[in-house]
Design goal:
disordered N terminus, Coagulation Factor XIII, Chain A, domain 1, 2 domains, globular, about 55% strand
C-alpha cells in the first residue's frame, strides 16, 4: 500500500472505533472502471515508553505563504533517559517529496519530562502535507520511534 492509500485510509477511519469497517468505491478515469475496497479501523499501539505529539499553530486553516509553527513534544514514560539524542522532523508533500526537514542534535530526554522542539514553516503551495516525527539515540545509532504521519496539514 503506498503513502497516498495509507493517508486516505487514515482520514476515512479517523475517530472510528476499532473493528469498524467502511466500504469505499473508487472510480478510475478515463476508462470509468470501478473497484470496491473495505478498510478496517484497528487499535494501534504506540511504541512502548514514549508519548509524542505534533501541534500546528495557528489552529485555523493554513494558507500559502503564511507562517505555521510546527511543534513536536516527546515524553519518556518508561523511566528511560536518552543522552544527547537526535530529533528529526520532516514535512513531505502529498507525492512524498521532502519539502522541509529540521534536525535537532544533542537533545537529552529525561524520564517524565517533556522535550519540545519547534520551528516556523511557510508552505509555498496549496495541498496536503505530512509531518513525520522521530527520535534517535546519539549520532542516529538507534531509532527509538518513527511516526510516519504524526500530523496532516491541509494548506488552502
Amino acid at each position: 500500500m503506498d503513502a497516498e492509500h495509507v493517508i486516505l485510509s487514515k482520514e476515512i477511519l479517523n475517530g472510528r472505533p476499532p473493528g469498524s469497517e467502511t466500504k469505499i468505491i473508487l472510480e478510475f478515469w478515463p476508462k470509468g472502471t470501478t473497484a470496491e475496497i473495505t478498510v478496517s479501523a484497528k487499535a494501534v499501539k504506540p511504541e512502548p515508553g514514549y508519548q509524542r505529539k505534533v501541534t500546528v499553530l495557528p489552529r485555523t486553516a493554513p494558507k500559502v505563504d503564511r507562517p505555521l509553527t510546527i511543534e513536536g513534544t516527546i515524553v519518556s514514560l518508561n523511566g528511560a533517559s536518552v543522552y544527547k539524542g537526535v530529533i528529526d522532523v520532516e514535512i513531505h508533500d502529498a507525492e512524498g517529496n521532502k519539502v522541509e526537514q529540521r534536525i535537532y542534535n544533542e537533545k537529552t530526554l529525561k524520564p517524565d519530562e517533556p522535550l519540545t522542539v519547534s520551528f516556523t514553516w511557510k508552505p509555498q503551495k496549496r495541498g496536503k502535507y505530512i509531518v513525520k516525527f522521530s527520535y534517535f539515540t546519539t549520532n542516529w545509532k538507534e531509532n527509538l520511534f518513527w511516526d510516519d504521519a504524526a500530523r496532516i496539514i491541509e494548506v488552502q
